[in-house]
Amino acid sequence: MTINFYPVADKSEFSGTDQLHVNINDEEILLCREGDDFYAVSYYCSHATLALEGGYIYKSRIICPYHGAEFCLRSGEALTPPAFEEIKSYPLLVEGTSISVGLDKN
Ligand code: FES
Fold it and tell me: Which strands make up the sheet holding 61-63, listed edge to edge?
């Protein structure tokens, strides 16, 4: 499998926020920051397809702002109900201040 990395953000865009909504080839992605760590996961929750943006981030997890399901930001695994299906997680490349998200090459 080949992965293409797309530069989507600069670290400076995270000043004052810990989340950024990006779109690559019509794939909606939520970039998350926790301290010095960055993650990229699906923008939408697997429970009711509502946006995860605005969810509380802690211990490499995000809590869906709607019904409280928690997801692992590293793997996308659903950790608590009412979500049972994982969300997509994406590889990241951080070079200097540039953040790139990896997508499978079509
Ligand atoms: S939409 Fe996320 S837990 Fe329901």
Answer: 56-58, 61-63, 70-72
